[in-house]
Amino acid sequence: MERAELTPDLLLKAYTLGVFPMAESRDDPAVFWVDPKRRGILPLDGFHISRSLARRLRRGGVEIAVDRDFAGTVAACADRPETWINATIFDLYARLHAMGFAHSLEVWRDDRMVGGVYGVTLGGAFFGESMFSRETDASKIALAFLVDRLRQAGFALFDTQFTTPHLRSLGGHDIPRATYHRLLAQALARSCDFTAAATPDPQSLVQRNTQTS
Which residues have C-beta within 8 Å of that of residue 103, sequence separation ≥ 6? Predict the structure, then answer.
């Protein structure tokens, strides 16, 4: 699909239909649609904070920010030997961010972004696109604060697209396509504001997760 054919509005429509875009590599200008038979989700009531992650959270020393550096988060996610984030996708999500549909949650230490995640929000659905980590557990910390934010804002679905061992260790799993579409329809019927939720301190985050998991 040529870049001129793929617009932010078309991309948002694709999400409502359960499909998302990818590229073969950063140097391949083409973008294709993906509709997996089994879809990865991270249940908002089943996120697992391990003892080691809880200790790291309580240790503090990091700052959590939302949308402080969206472009930097996407660039960091693409900063690896192989990536599906090409120039077309980078530009599209920057435009979705400007429209208020794409957001990043970032982990900062000493004015340096050390981890983060970005995705798209529609109704009560969060479509996770990618995450990165520049120090141990930074992406896990980002996910812990992201899940808490989604819970507090009333979101119903955290779509991870695929399930990796990293996500499975945190409670992620695969569901059939039909089940995903049912959950998606329910989530899209909600009205949620990703930016309205407050960011808790690490101690409160761990306590809330213990109470809800």
Answer: 66, 67, 70, 97, 118, 119, 120, 121, 194, 195
CATH topology of domain 37-81+101-212: Aminopeptidase (3.40.630)
Amino acid at 143: L
CA distances from 126 to 73, 117, 166, 206 (A): 17, 11, 19, 22
Dihedral Cα 68, 25, 167, 160, nearest 10 deg? 70
Residue type, 40: G
Give the pLDDT band of residue 4 (cuts 50, 70, 90).
very low
Predicted pLDDT of residue 212: 56
The residues pairing with 122 across neighbouring beta strands, listed in sequence order, are 125
Residues 156, 144: contact at Cβ < 8 Å? Answer: no
Full-model pTM? 0.93
Q: Write down how long the chain is.
A: 213
